Amino acid sequence: MKKQHPVMEVMCHVHNCKFNETDYCFAPKLEVNAKGNGDKADSSDEALCTTFMPH
Hints:
It is a single chain. The chain is mainly β. A hairpin with a 2-residue loop joins β1 (20-21) and β2. The protein contains no helices and four strands. It has one domain. The protein has strands spanning 20-21, 24-25, 32-34, 47-49. The strands form two sheets. Strands 1-2 form a two-stranded antiparallel sheet. Strands 3-4 form a two-stranded antiparallel sheet. The protein is flat, with a radius of gyration of 13 Å. This is DUF1540 domain-containing protein.
């Protein structure tokens, strides 16, 4: 059986993001990556929402 993607509400307080509607993210998918080199973040300051697009 194929595992389904999670479905959840995603809050967004970046008001100049194209996908932000009344503090919720309405992007078709959300991608979060580690800042800098590698694929590890040790804190939320080291994580980056790469789905962000200015409007």
